[in-house]
Amino acid sequence: MIPPLVLEIVMATTRTGNRSINSVVAAVFGATYVLVGLAGFFVSDTVADTNDNTLLGFEVNHLHNATHLLIGLALLAASRRTESARKTNLVIGAVYLLLAVLGPFIEDTSANVFALNGADHVLHLLSGALLVGVALLADKHARSRTTV
């Protein structure tokens, strides 16, 4: 479910200055994920194991950190153009929603190589909903202009 405030912002405006909402969201999420990925390397000491190394309540390992870096870089790269930002927001958001659903089932198994925990599941659900919501609802004028 997309928070009502997010829907209001998306519906009220489709551009933020010279950048589209999808571009801004991709840039903000991208920068955040790059910073979190980098910070995670300072607190984790394993590659693909679950452990007690946490960053703000989120369990991390080097594989988890590298994944955050790659996702962040993909979002930053895509943020340069509205359509690429929209597509990337949609794909990454959908993957996060899927991970939010599947994550709790793998959390206590040997398949949990990313060191996922409950905090991750909530963040994946919220991030996924926001990214998918923005991708589907914002910047409709840019899509209609390019498809005509």
Short description:
By secondary structure, the chain is mostly helical.
Report on this model:
This protein has 148 residues and is mainly α. The protein has one domain (19-138). The chain is 69% helix and 5% strand. The protein has six helices and four strands, in the order H-E-E-H-E-E-H-H-H-H. The strands form two sheets. A two-stranded antiparallel sheet has the order 1-2. It has a two-stranded antiparallel sheet with strand order 3-4. A hairpin with a 2-residue loop joins strand 3 (54-55) and strand 4. Helix 2 (21-43) packs across helix 4 (82-106), helix 3 (62-78) packs antiparallel against helix 4 (82-106) and helix 4 (82-106) runs antiparallel to helix 5. The two termini are 31 Å apart. The model is unreliable at 5-15 (pLDDT under 50).
